[in-house]
Amino acid sequence: MNNPAPQQPAELLARLRATFRAGKTKPVSWRTRQLHRMRTLLTERGETFAAALHADLGKSSTEAYRTEIDFVIREIDHTLEHLDGWLRPEPAPVPAFIGEASAWTQYDPLGVVLVIAPWNYPAQLLLAPVAGALAAGNAVVAKPSELAPATSAALARLVPQYLDTDAVAVVEGGVAETTALLEQRFDHILYTGNGTVGRIVMAAAARHLTPVTLELGGKSPAFVDRGTDLDTVAARLAAGKFLNAGQTCVAPDYVLTDPETARALEAALAKAIEGLYGADPAASPEYGRIVSERHFDRLTALLDSGRQATGGAYDRETKYIAPTVLAEVSPDAPVMQEEIFGPILPIVEVAGLDEAIDFINDRDKPLALYAFTESDTTRERLAAETSSGGLGFGLPLAHLTIPDLPFGGVGESGMGSYHGRYSIETFSHRKAVLAKPLS
Ligand code: NAD
């Protein structure tokens, strides 16, 4: 298969729609073939993606495989294992007044899906939704992020070598190219990124009544209860926060805890960071870099939002910012006004659980909420009294690696979800069918 010459969005859409109309993408055999081909792409070209991710974000090879390449392979394997079952029509009971008849729901592919991906996990966040859209029997246009140019180029070059170019296209570019794509009528759009652009995407989609899935971000809190084992808490918090230099949508954004626990946690976090990256994280091959100078400048301006308990060093030339913990941070401090999306962890002090719950509920609904507690009552109260895209007790980030859990936000952190069978729900129409014999 050759990489076809770039086309104008209208021509591209017409071509992909013709493929869909001809029924090519609908047989389950075609879908599973595409998933197998994507799997081969990732196994054969894993090193190319790892190198691109290192060039874009300083990601170590271990991290590139764990959070992007192998992540998508697991998603594909899970889908291949369960797809037949997920697609099986579901019978529905027929009320007596209709007489003899049968009824069921079936999943219909939607048509041509647009996937717009961000730069922070630029391979995973493009390929995982594309895998879902293909598994549901759609044609797909995928737009990687221009802020991860090496990964974007690798995807644009390699995807057409592996997937069916009649049905899958990668379109590179920034705002202008995305705006041009958004003028077209798609049958579904999945956008991952920030809420400002999310609103632009939704407004463009509204012109065509196109449904959207918005995978957005926000400030995900981590509540640390009194009396927990702070070495364990700190190790897990630091691993979740400083992965990809904090540029993770579900990273713990800030810690909420009582003043006494805060003091002890500061020291435990410093120890945990050293355990992960050594005494000088700048020299650790496992520690990433900030994606751009604009984000670097935005982040360094936040470094004096509180007392620096650990970290604070930075270097603009290499876009390095040390894993930093800020103590005694005021809720009014600049670092608490926007999603941090970088390696800065503020600790905000609250009197206890009631105040923590109020603090969370006074703000936008986060993509994730984390809590470290031994108390069932505290867990139950957080689950019942707060709203967030996902909820993790004792371990940040890991909920999104569970393939049978939906991944998505609520309120300002997004709408809709995907992963596993939820991708089939998202990228299909669930059609109601009634069949009554004529005699
Ligand atoms: P980004 O800048 O890469 O933008 C995302 C996409 O939007 C890119 O493909 C870009 O080309 C496109 N885009 C940018 N401006 C546009 C415009 N004006 N019109 C149309 N398209 C446009 O990514 P970002 O927004 O910096 O990503 C960071 C945000 O994404 C954070 O808030 C983070 O929490 C969130 N995020 C969410 C998830 C999730 O799964 N929920 C995952 C990763 C990141």
Task: Characterize the structure shown.
This protein has 2 domains: 9-216 and 410-435, Aldehyde Dehydrogenase, Chain A, domain 1 (3-Layer(aba) Sandwich), CATH 3.40.605; 221-401, 3-Layer(aba) Sandwich (Aldehyde Dehydrogenase, Chain A, domain 2), CATH 3.40.309.10. With 439 residues, the protein is an alpha/beta fold. The protein is globular and about 75 Å long. Strands 10-13-14-9-8-15-16 form a 7-stranded mixed β-sheet, with helices on both faces. A 6-stranded mixed β-sheet has the order 5-4-3-6-7-17, sandwiched between helices. It has helices at 9-21, 28-44, 46-57, 61-87, 124-135, 149-162, 175-182, 195-206, 230-242, 259-277, 293-300, 353-361, 376-385, 421-426, and strands at residues 90-92, 102-109, 112-116, 139-143, 168-170, 188-192, 212-215, 221-224, 254-257, 307-310, 314-315, 320-321, 324-327, 344-349, 368-372, 390-393, 414-415, 428-435. The chain has 14 helices and 18 strands. The chain starts with 8 loop residues before the first helix and ends with a strand. Strand 11 and strand 12 form a beta hairpin. It is 41% helix and 18% strand. Nicotinamide-adenine-dinucleotide (NAD) binds at residues 116-120, 125, 143, 145-147, 174-175, 178-179, 192-194, 197, 200, 215-217, 249, 339, 341, 367, 409, 414.
